[in-house]
Amino acid sequence: MKIIFAGTPEFAAVALKALHDAGHQIVLALTQPDRPAGRGMQLHASPVKQFALDHQIPVAQPVSLRLDGKYPEVAKEAHELLQTTPHDIMVVAAYGLILPLSVLNIPPRGCLNIHGSLLPRWRGAAPIHRAIEAGDSETGITIMQMDQGLDTGAMLLIEKLAISTDDTTGSLHDKMAALGGEMIVEALRRLEHDALPATPQPEQGVTYAAKISKEEAALDFTQPAEVLERKIRAFNPFPAASASFAGVTLKLWQAQVVAATGAHVPGTIISADPQDGVVVACSSGALRITELQKPGGKRLPVAEFLKAFPMQGGKFD
C-alpha cells in the first residue's frame, strides 16, 4: 500500500521501519519540527525523520495542521501536500500533533493509529508511564481507526502484553514498539483482504494518561513504598524520579520495596550500606534504593555512589 506515515519518537520509528521492511511504499513522513537537545541545545531530527532521510522518504514538518489555529498558512500548505500526494492510507504513531477532521478525511482508506494501551484504558499522551505507575499487570497495543476524539476511535486489532514487576517505561516501551510494528503490518495485511472489522470502544473503563511533567518526578516519602517504587520505574528514563538530600537533588533509578524496621519519620534514611542499598522509610514499608545519580554525574550502583556521597543517617527533604 501507499502510506503517509505520521510519527515522531523512537516508538514511531520502529513502526515505520516495520512497514518499510514489509514492502509498503512510504510516500511521505510527517514528523515534528527539529528540537534543540543535549548540552549544546543543537537542533536534532526526530527518529522518524532520521529513518526517512536514510531511506529517501520525503519528509514534512509542519508546526500545525489546524486551519483555524495559530499557523493557518502552514496548515494550508500541509493540507495541499497531503491532498496532492497519492496514497491509500495514513498510519499515525505518537505524532504529537492534533489531526483535525480536515486531515482525517483526506486518506482514501482513513487513518490508523498505533496506540500503546488496551483501549479504552489509558487514552492520551503517556499510556506506558501511567500503566506502570498505576500498577497495571498488563497493557498492550491497539490499532485504532482515528476519529475526532482523543483516542476514541473504533478498535481494529488489539493484543495484550504482560507488565513485569521490574519493567521500566524504557524496557516496556521497547517491547511495545516492536509489538506495534508487527501489529500495524498485520492490520494492513488484513485490510487489503477486507478482513479487519471495527469494534467500537466500550463506554466503561475509560481512563486518561496525562502527559508526564517534570514536577511529578519529586518523590513524596509520605506515600507508601510500593507507590514510590512504581513511580521510579514509571519515570525511568524520563523524567527520572528524584529526591533532595542535604540540599542536593538526586535522581533515583532503581529501588525495591522492603519491610521497615522500627518506627521512622517518612524520608528518614534507615541505613546506607554498599551491599544492601540506601533504605528509606515511607508512610508504610521502606524503599531500598540501589542506583542513584547526583547532578552532573553518572548513574551509579549504590556501592559506587556511596564512596563519593556518604548518606548514613539523615533524611530526604
Model description:
InterPro entries: Fmt, Formyl_trans_C, Formyl_transf_N, Formyl_transf_N_sf, Formyl_transferase-like_C_sf, Met-tRNA-FMT_C, Met-tRNA-FMT_N. This is Methionyl-tRNA formyltransferase. One of its GO terms (cellular component) is cytosol. It is a single chain. By secondary structure, the chain is α/β, with parallel strands linked by helices. A hairpin with a 6-residue loop joins strand 16 and strand 17.
Key descriptive features of the protein:
Rossmann fold, 7-stranded mixed β-sheet, 2 domains, EC 2.1.2.9, 317 residues, 17 strands, Methionyl-tRNA Fmet Formyltransferase, Chain A, domain 2, 27% helix, Methionyl-tRNA formyltransferase, alpha/beta, 8 helices, 6-stranded antiparallel β-sheet, elongated
Give the structure's gist in a few sentences.
The chain has helices at residues 10-21, 47-54, 72-84, 101-104, 127-133, 169-192, 225-234, 302-308; strands at 2-7, 25-30, 35-37, 42-44, 59-60, 89-93, 111-115, 123-124, 138-145, 155-162, 208-209, 241-245, 248-258, 269-273, 277-281, 286-293, 300-301. It is of the alpha/beta class.
